[in-house]
Amino acid sequence: MSYFDAASSAPLHPVARQALLASLDEGWADPARLYREGRKARLLLDAAREAAAEAVGCRPDELVFTGSGTRAVHSGIAGALAGRRRVGRHLIVSAVEHSSVLHSAEALVAEGGSSTEVPVDRTGAVSVAAYADSLRSDTALACLQSANHEVGTVQPVAEVAEACRAVGVPLLVDAAQSLGWGQVEGAWSLLTASAHKWGGPAGVGLLVVRKGVRFAAQGPVDERESGRAPGFENIPAVVAAAASLRAVRTEAAQEALRLRELTERIRARVPKLVPGVDVVGDPVRRLPGIVTFSCLYVDGETLLHELDRAGFSVSSGSSCTSSTLTPSHVLKAMGVLSEGNVRVSLPRGATEEDVERFLAVLPGAVAGVREKLGAQTPVTAVEEESLVVDALGKRCPIPVIELAKVIGDVPVGGTVKVLSDDEAARLDIPAWCEMRGQEYVGEERAPKGTAYLIRRAT
Amino acid sequence: MSYFDAASSAPLHPVARQALLASLDEGWADPARLYREGRKARLLLDAAREAAAEAVGCRPDELVFTGSGTRAVHSGIAGALAGRRRVGRHLIVSAVEHSSVLHSAEALVAEGGSSTEVPVDRTGAVSVAAYADSLRSDTALACLQSANHEVGTVQPVAEVAEACRAVGVPLLVDAAQSLGWGQVEGAWSLLTASAHKWGGPAGVGLLVVRKGVRFAAQGPVDERESGRAPGFENIPAVVAAAASLRAVRTEAAQEALRLRELTERIRARVPKLVPGVDVVGDPVRRLPGIVTFSCLYVDGETLLHELDRAGFSVSSGSSCTSSTLTPSHVLKAMGVLSEGNVRVSLPRGATEEDVERFLAVLPGAVAGVREKLGAQTPVTAVEEESLVVDALGKRCPIPVIELAKVIGDVPVGGTVKVLSDDEAARLDIPAWCEMRGQEYVGEERAPKGTAYLIRRAT
Questions:
Q1: Nearest CB neighbour to A104, from listed B106, B220, B231
Q2: Which of B58, B143, B164, B320 is catalytic?
Q3: Beta strand pairing status for B90-94 and B139-145?
Q4: Nearest to B313 among A8, A35, A315 (CB)
Q5: Which residue of A67, A220, A315 is in closest CB contact with B68?
Q6: Under an 8 A CB cutoff, do B196 and A20 touch?
């Protein structure tokens, strides 16, 4: 098996495993106790905090360990918002943040606060100017990921941090995807991360709050971890997290080069090997190990199953692979094709052979899925000079497949109307038009679902 | 070293260690993913949930894993309160709950709700009648621990649950101290526990919400663990927690008998070996492994250091050993002596030899501390027919030591007034009077600190 989903969770790094084992016998006691076992536990915890702080580039007393990256984000945002409640209750996030950030924003809005989602361009990056424009006098906190988890695009954190600093707004950086590769540059105020993303164990998040940043931890009081992360410290896991962060950092520069070359191969060759592919994300400003592409006329879930059967574990932002039936909010915000979406995120140590085997297997897998899906004949009618395709009740990628089948049936300048009640069509029909050089006219409400109007341009 | 503080954290059970190791390689992937590694992780998680649910005596879909016992309590109380917000915002807790419960109550009060603390008797138990009396028409939730963490007293959970059920109020049981020994009986509605208390790893709590109990998880939305415990699942730890719970349960009946005999020895022999000792907690309805006593004229922190040097790790509810400078809220609620407090909580496998050695070492350790503390001469004066002892600025147990020194200087029927600004004196002076057969008259505010009035009765 080739595991190509490191952005979801990385396999445990050997150093993490070793450190975890070594500290299981020394780190189980309560570090708040004064007896021998407690003192040993405290020493381990302090050393882990120092190592993690050094890797982050902060003071040890600015860093606490939480039970997960999600907890770090939830607690960090809630505490920073509460610390600046007098300033206002406005939060800024980018449109492509991790769900833990977006759900925190929703929670704020549900409580009467407000939030602004800064849009991204087609590569998935925010513009510094747009981010700066969203800063208001009542902005309590701004959030920006260091790099995107679905497409790998690196965000202009240092520049946005500078814009925030200029108006006195703290910036929280979700560094979950990048911390294993290096420190987050710039004058950020808060930072969060998650150990299992860099090969540490599950159950450890980092929350860093710079000295001088107003912060009021929310929820019931608890004395542990400076009052910022309630509950008994998970010291063996924390030790393993810190040790593995140090280890991956030592190898980071070299491994980044190697993985970047491998993902570059995928970026360059997939469009040549597979027709109708859109490689998404910034080609240059990106994480070393992530490459994401979408395949026209392909059902993401079926493609994932095919790849799994061929021995490849990848993930997808296609709507049909999630429980929500809507495409990934990241792809949506980027305005790119979501159907047949595949994210390859290489773990450290991924081999050239595995990548080559993936490139060998992919075309057949895509072709197989397309063949299965392409058999049906679209149901069409002519209405008000448009050819109408009734794709109601059909799920992604069928509406786009049917559109592609019938576009040749109208003359250049003629229009096709696709009726669809699948949420993915809203994203995928315009994306198809862009890829195919056709003109997307717009959408309107139909008696059932939505009517998407396309004018044949070529 | 003899580790006698299992109630704080138990050493990792061999089965937990073994299960953790075995699942490190299989349980690191995201159980929400459909590929092979994800499916393996999901299988492990599901199996762990089933095993834990069986041990608790609930359905698997009623149980979620949280990042700690404290998190389980915080989330359980917040969710249950929110689920019944229409009924009211009144919470009932016993006065001797774990701090995570009491802090949740404080958080509710800070947000405009109300809470009632049900008092306990001198053994640390609530009375079912008093608990039932505290139920109101606006009571959203009631909380009661299964057994006390500081003195081991078992609470009448089944009877209180019945009283709650009769009026439709859900009861949350904090079973942190008892779950390793057996299921919690009775018609409880919610239950919380913490794996490292039974020999499982840190980083795992259990939150059980019975079907039909109104529950609205608070905080930002997260899909994992039925939306009740945000963050990436820590599967190796969860597997280890479930496996070790099963393991300790298998041994529970036999080990309980053995530990009960050992703690009974301590209960019976410490008062004979050490003068001026009060063994606290219920002598019969108690956990097998916990025994707690307080020693007159002893500074708890110094005694702990002496015992640590002699190779025994115990904890204390004395004020001087905590960062808050107030005695344990449990001892305070019981109205028992807090000075020189020692909690012995035997881990599974504690040996008779270790307990005998403890009993051999303790008298000398106590005598040594008493000798160091007893040298000073009290500063006294006579004022309004009372002998006044100025113990201002002196910390526990000095005020009581000075009281004991001067009581013989007044005739029977005469009074001593102790001036003290140490919070522990409020508990320890009345407790001393009770132990010594003297009459505690009461306290009044003094220009500095508090004046405690004692009448010599014998």
A1: B220
A2: B320
A3: parallel
A4: A35
A5: A67
A6: no
Higher pLDDT, A14 or A379: A14
Going from N- to C-terminal start, the domains of chain A cover 9-248, 252-373, 380-455
- Predicted confidence (pLDDT) per residue in A332-343, tens digit: 999 999 999 999
Between the alpha carbon of residue B54 and those of residues A280, A291, B57, B242, the distances in Å are 47, 43, 5, 10
Q: Is B320 a catalytic residue?
A: yes
Which residues, given as ranges, of chain B have pLDDT below 50? none
B221 in reach of chain A (CB within 8 A): yes
What pLDDT is attached to residue A322? 59
DSSP state of B5: B
Which of A40, A143, A313 is the best residue to mutate to test the B interface, defined by the most B CB atoms within 10 Å of its own CB? A313
Identify which of B10, B36, B74 has the shortest CB distance to residue A219: B74
Q: What is the pLDDT of residues A244-264, one digit of tens each?
A: 999 999 999 999 999 999 999
What are the CA-CA distances from residue A273 to residues A360, A366, B6 (Å)? Answer: 9, 10, 62
More confident residue, A54 or A374: A54
Please give the backbone phi and psi of residue A223, each rounded to the nearest 5 degrees, phi first.
Answer: -80, -20
CATH topology of domain B7-248: Aspartate Aminotransferase; domain 2 (3.40.640)
- Chain A segment 102-141 residues within 8 A of B by beta carbon are 103-104, 106-107
Given the candidates 3.40.190.10, 3.40.50.2300, 3.30.110.40, 1.20.120.80, the CATH classification of the domain at B380-455 is: 3.30.110.40
Q: Which of B2, B9, B21 would you mutate first to test chain A, the one with the most A CBs within 10 A?
A: B9
The catalytically annotated residue of A58, A143, A164, A320 is A320
Q: Report residue B337 as tokens.
A: 């002596």
Q: Which of A24, A34, A68 sits opposite B12 (nearest CB)?
A: A24
**Pairing state between β B386-390 and B415-420:** parallel
CB burial of residue B61 (10 Å; 0-12, 13-18, 19+): exposed
Q: What is the pLDDT of residue A325?
A: 67
Q: Which CATH superfamily is domain B252-373 in?
A: Aspartate Aminotransferase, domain 1 (3.90.1150.10)
- For A9-248, CATH gives 3.40.640.10
- What are A75-107's pLDDT values in tens digits? 999 999 999 999 999 999 999 999 999 999 999
Cβ contact (<8 Å) for A220 and B308?
no
Residues in chain B with CB shorter than 8 Å from the CB of A230 are 68, 70-71, 74, 100
Q: Which of residues 298-337 of A touch B (CB under 8 A)?
A: 301, 304-305, 308, 312-315, 321, 323
B252-373 matches B380-455 in fold: no
Find the closest chain B residue to A105 by CA distance. B220
The whole-number average pLDDT for the span A408-414 is 95
pLDDT of residue A383: 86
Is B154:B287 a contact under the CB 8 Å cutoff? yes
Tell me how far CA of residue A402 lies from CA of A301, A341, B450, in angstroms: 19, 19, 86
pLDDT at A321 over 80: no
* Pairs across A and B, CB distance < 8 A: 196
Q: Provide the pLDDT for residue A73.
A: 98
* Contact (CB<8Å) B29/A74: no
Contact B203, A67 (CB under 8 A): yes
pLDDT per position as a tens digit, A175-190: 999 999 999 999 999 9
In the predicted model, is pLDDT for residue A320 greater than 80?
no
In sequence order, what are the residues at sequence separation of 6 or more whose Cβ sits closer than 8 angstroms to the Cβ of residue B304?
A34, A35, B314, B315, B316, B321, B342
- The single residue listed with the structure tokens 């490689």 is A279
CB contact A11 to B (< 8 Å): yes
> What is the chain A residue with the closest CA to B109?
A220
Contact A269, A44 (CB under 8 A): no
